[in-house]
Amino acid sequence: MRILMITITLSSLVICHALENEPEQSRQKPRKSTDSSRTMYAYDLHGELLNHEGYSRSTWTSRTEPAALKSKVVHHVLVSDSRNGDRKSLLEFKKGIRNDPAGAMAGWIFTRADFCFWKGIRCNAAGRVSGISLPGSQLTGVLSPSIGNLSFLSFLNLSSNNFEGPIPSSLGLCQRLVTLDLSSNPLTGSIPSQIGSLRELITLQLRNITGLQGEIPPEIGGCTKLKTIEISSTQLSGGLPHSLMRCTNLLNLLVYSNSNLSGMIPVTIITLRSLEVVWLNGNSMVGEIPIRWNQLINLNNLDLSSNQLNGTIPPELFGLPSLRILDLGNNRLNGSFEVHSNNSLEELYLNGNNLGGGIPKSIRYLHSVRILQMMWQDLGGSIPKELGDLVNLESFNCLFCGLNGSLPGSLGSLRNLTILRLPNNQISGPVPPEMSRLSSLQELNLGHNNLSGELGEELIRGWTSLEYLYIDTNHLSGRIPRSFGMLKSLKHLYMHFNKLDGEIPQEIGGLPQLELLSLGGNNLTGGIPTTIANSTSLTELSLYNSILNGEINTALFGLTNLKVLNLGTSSFEGTLDERTIASWINIEEVYLDNNRFTGPIPRSFGSLKHLDTLFLHVNAFNGTVPTELGLLSNLTLLSMYENRLTGEIPTSLSNCSKLTYLLLGTNELSGSIPPELSRLTNLQSLHFDANELTGTIPLELGMLSNLYDLWLFKNHLTGTIPNTISNCTGMKSMHLSNNNLTGELTLDFGQFQNLSSLSLYDNGFTGGVPEVLSNCTQLKLLDLSMNQLTGNIPDFKTNFSSMRIVSLASNNLEGQIPGWIWSLQQLQVLLLSGNTFTGILPTSFPLLGGMRVMSNNATLDRSQSTLYDLVLVPTKGTQLEYAEIILAFTSIDLSNNEFHGELPAGLDSLYALRLLNLSGNHFSGPIPATLGKITTLESLDLSNNELAGDIPAEVANLAPLAVLDVAHNNLSGKIPLPGGTKFPASSFEGNLNLCGYPLNQTCTTGNAAPKTSAVSEDVDKGFISTTALLIGLATGFLGILLVIWSSKRALRLVDNFLWFFLRVLRVDSIVVSRHFASDIDIDADVHASRAPHYVDYLKRLRKRFGPEITTEDSVSDQGTINVSHI
C-alpha cells in the first residue's frame, strides 16, 4: 500500500503543479486553494488555468477509498503516457529549429520533468499541451509535422519568426485549435486543405508570408466558427472561395495586399451579416462592386482599394447605417456618383479612379464625414458650395482632379477644417475672403492652379493655426501681405512662380518656426530682408529665377540650420563674405548660379562638411579655384563654368571621392589636366571645355570607369586620345573638338555602346574613319570634320536608328557615299563638304525621315526634340557653331566635292529641308522644278557646277528662300520675277546666257519670256536677304542685332551669344542670319523678366569685343522693358 501511495502522489504532482514561481508573465494568475498546506492549480481543455479551488496534498491520503484509488491510478497512468507523447512531440518540434539566438527554447530539454514549465507552453487541467506561444522569438527552422500530435492544442502563435518550408498538413489533426497565427514568416508552399478540418477555429492569421502560393483552399469553408481570417502579403492566386460564405459567424474578413489574388468579389458576401470589417484592398480583383450591401448592417470598415474594380459605385454603400470608413481608391471605377444621407460615415476615400461628373451636390448629406479624399482622377466640374455644409470636415484632399471654376466662399464655414489640398487643378479666380474664418487650418495647398488676384492682409491674418501654405505656380499678383508675420506657427511658405511684386516684407523674418521659404519666379524687387537672419529654424531658402538683387551676406549670416540655399538665375551681386559662408554649418546644397557675383570664391566653402552640391556657374568670379574645396568629402556636384577663374585646376579636388559632376568649362584655367583626378572613381561628367589648358590628355582618366561625359573642347591639348579611355565603357558624350590633337583614331570606340555624341572636329587627326564606330548604335551626333582623315567612309552595316547629325566635312575623304548614310531615318544634318567624294546622288531618298518632319512650333516639345551639343553648320561664306539643334533645323551640304550627274528630282521628298548646298561639284542637267515643293527651303546653293537650262520660277519664288546662289553654271534664259528681286547679282553671275534683273544683261526678244512689270527703282541692288537658321520656338519679347566686322571674331562672339541665350536666358527662339560679307544677325526672343541679365551680359561682351557691337532693341506689345541705347 505504501508503494501504491507513492505512485499516486507522484502522479498527482504531475497533474497538479505547484506554480508559486510561474515563469510566464502572460499566464493568468489562478485562484489559490483554500488549503494552505500547498497551492495547487489545474488547467481547462483550452490550456488555461482553472479558476476553481485547487487541490491540496490532503486530497491524496490513505483515507482514499481503495476502489476509487485504483480507478485514479489507472487514469493517471494513461495520462502519464499521453503526456509523454506531448513531450516527445515538443522535442520533435524543437529538432526542426536550427537557430535560436534568443534562447527561447533553451529550457526545452528531456531531463526536465515538467514541460508545462517550458517557455511558451501552456497546459490544460490534464497536463496536456494546449498552447504554444513563441511570437517574435527569432527562431529559424521548419515547422515539424509532429505538431499535429498535440491533440489538445487550442492556441498556436509562431508569428514574426523565420520559419521556412511548408505549413504542415498535420495541423488539421489539431481538432481543438481555436487560434492559429503563423504571420510574418518566410514560409513557402500552399495553405493545406486540411485547415478546413479545424471546426473549432475562430482566428486564422497568415499575414506577411510572401512565399505562400497556390489558392485559398475551398475547404476553408469548413471552419464555420471563424470570426477572423487574415491573409495578406502573399503570392496567393485565384479568387475568394465561395465556400467562405458558409462562415456565417465571420466578423473580420481581412484578405489584402495579395497582388496575384484576382477574381470577382463574391456576390454572396452580403450573406455574411455579422461582418464588421472587410479589407480586400491591394489585390487584383476585377469586376463590379456587388450591390445590396444594405444587408450588412454591422459593417463599419470597408476597404476595396487598389484593385482593378470597374463600373459605378453602388449607392447602397452610402446607406450602411454603421459604416464609418469607406475606401474605394485606386481602382477603375467610372461614372458619376451620388450620396445618400449618412450619419455614420467619417472617412471616404475615392482616389485614383476614373470618376467624372464632378463632386455631387449630394455630398452635403455626409453629415459626419471628417476625411474626404478624391485625388488623382479627372472629376471635372467646380467645387460645389454644398461642401460648406460638412461642418465636421477636417481634411479635404482633391489634387489632380481636373477641377475648375472658383473657390466657393462657403468653404469658410468649415471651422473644423485642418487640411485643404487642392493643387494641380484649373481652379481660377481669387482666394475668397470668407476663407479667413478657417482659424483651425493647419495646411493649405492651392499650388499649380490658375488663381489670380491679391492675397489680402485680413485673409492671411485669419489663418492663425496655419503651419503649411503652398500657393505656388498660380497667377497671384500684388504684394506679399505683411500679416504673414503674425502666423507664428508657419513652417512652410511656398509662393514661387506667381506674379507677386514689391519687396519681400521684413515681417517674414519674424517667423520663429519657419523652415522652408520659396518665393522665386515672381517679380519681386529689392534684396533679401535682413530679418531673414533671425529665421534660425530655416532649412531651405529658395529665391531662384527672380529679379531680386543686392548683396546677400548680411541677410544670410548665421543661418546655422540652413540645408538648401537656391538663389540661382537672379540678379544678386557683390562678393561673398567668408564669415557668412562659414556660418552655414549644416548646408547641403548651394545654388548661386546665373547671378552677378564677383571676386574670389570664398575658401570657407571648404569648411562646410555636409556640402553635397555647389553651383556657382555663370557669374563673374575671378581668382583661382580654392584648394580648400578638396576638403569636401561629401561633395557630389561642383559647377563653376562661365566665370573668370584663372590658374591651374587644383589637385586637391581628387580628394572629393563622392564627386560625380565636375564642371569648370568656359573659364581661363591654364596648365595641364591633373592625373590625380583619376581617383574620382564616381565621376560621371568632366567638363573642362573652353579654357586655356595645355599638355596631353592623361592616361589615368581611363580609370574613371563611371565617366559618361568628357568635354575638353576649345583648349590647347596636344598628343593623341589615350587608348585607356576605352575603359570608360559607359561613355555617352565625348567632345574633344578645337584642340591640337593628332594621330590616328586608334581608340576602341566600340566599347562605348551607349555613346550618343562624338565631336572631334578642328583637330589634326589622320588615318581613316574608325570602323569600330559600327558598334556605337546609339549615336546621335558624329562630327569628325576639319581634320586630315583619309580613305573611304566605312560601309557600316549597323542600323544607326538614332543618328541625327553626321559631319565629316573638310577632310581628305574620297570614294562614294555609302548606302547606310542615305538610310538614316532620323538624320537632320548631313555635312560632307570639302572632301573628294565622287559618284552620283540617289534618285530618291525614301528613308531620310528626319528631313520630312514638319515641326509645329506651337506644340514642339523642346526637351524631347533638342540635341544639346556643339556642331559646326557651314553657311554661305562662314561656319557657325551651334549649341543645340532641334527638329526644326535640317541641312544637307555636299559642296566642294567631285559629284557628277543630274540633280535628283526626288530631292522634293525631303520637304522639311531648310538648307541645301551642292556647290563646287560637277552636277549637270537642269535644275529640277520639283525643288519648289520644298516649302521650308531657306538656303539653296547650286553655284560652281555645270547646270544648264532655265531657273525654274517655282524655285526662285519660294517664299522662305532667303539665299539662292546659282552662279558659275551654264544656265540661260530670263531670271524669274518677282523672286529674282530678292537676290543680288552675284547669285547669278558666271552664266553667260542668263539675262534680266538683277544682272546688267538685258534679255532680247528672241531669248526672253514676255516682259513683266518694271521693277521699282527703290530696290537696293546690293541687298542680300537674311539666312534664317531657325533654332527654337517663338514667343516674342525682345530682339538684338549684332554687326561684326571680323569673321574670325564673329565666330567666337556668335558662339558666346548662342550659349548665353540658350543656357542662361533660356530663350525659346534664336534666329541667326548673315548680311553682306561681314554682318551677322542674331534675333533672340527674351522674356522681359530676363532683361537685366541681357543688359548685364551685353555690357560684358562690349568690354571684351569693343565697339563693333551695336544693338537695335525692340519691345513687343507684351513687354515693358526697353534696353536700347545701352
Describe the overall structure.
The structure is a single chain. By secondary structure, this protein is mainly beta. The chain has 9 helices and 72 strands. The strands form 12 sheets. It has a 35-stranded mixed beta sheet, with no helix packed on it. An 8-stranded parallel beta sheet has the order 50-52-54-60-62-64-66-67, with no helix packed on it. Strand 56 (871-875) and strand 57 form a beta hairpin. Helix 1 (2-15) crosses helix 2 and helix 8 runs antiparallel to helix 9. The protein is globular and about 125 Å long. The termini are far apart.
Give the SSE map.
Blueprint: H1 2-15, H2 66-95, E1 97-99, E2 121-123, E3 129-133, E4 140-142, E5 155-157, E6 162-164, E7 179-181, E8 188-190, E9 203-207, E10 211-213, E11 228-232, E12 252-256, E13 277-279, E14 301-303, E15 325-327, E16 334-335, E17 347-349, E18 354-355, E19 371-373, E20 395-397, E21 419-421, E22 428-429, E23 443-445, E24 450-453, H3 457-461, E25 468-470, E26 475-479, E27 492-494, E28 499-502, E29 516-518, E30 523-524, E31 540-542, E32 549-550, H4 553-556, E33 564-566, E34 571-574, H5 578-582, E35 589-591, E36 596-600, E37 613-615, E38 620-623, E39 637-639, E40 644-645, E41 661-663, E42 685-687, E43 709-711, E44 718-719, E45 733-735, E46 740-744, E47 757-759, E48 764-766, E49 781-783, E50 790-792, E51 805-807, E52 812-815, E53 829-831, E54 836-839, H6 862-865, E55 866-867, E56 871-875, E57 878-882, E58 885-886, E59 891-893, E60 898-902, E61 915-917, E62 922-925, E63 939-941, E64 946-949, H7 953-956, E65 963-965, E66 970-974, E67 993-995, E68 1029-1030, E69 1038-1039, H8 1047-1064, E70 1070-1075, E71 1079-1084, H9 1091-1105, ...
Parallel strand pairs: 3-5, 4-6, 5-7, 7-9, 8-10, 9-11, 11-12, 12-13, 13-14, 14-15, 15-17, 16-18, 17-19, 19-20, 20-21, 21-23, 22-24, 23-25, 24-26, 25-27, 26-28, 27-29, 28-30, 29-31, 31-33, 32-34, 33-35, 34-36, 35-37, 36-38, 37-39, 38-40, 39-41, 41-42, 42-43, 43-45, 44-46, 45-47, 46-48, 47-49, ...
Antiparallel strand pairs: 1-4, 2-3, 55-58, 56-57, 68-70, 69-72, 70-71
Helix pairs in contact: 1-2, 8-9
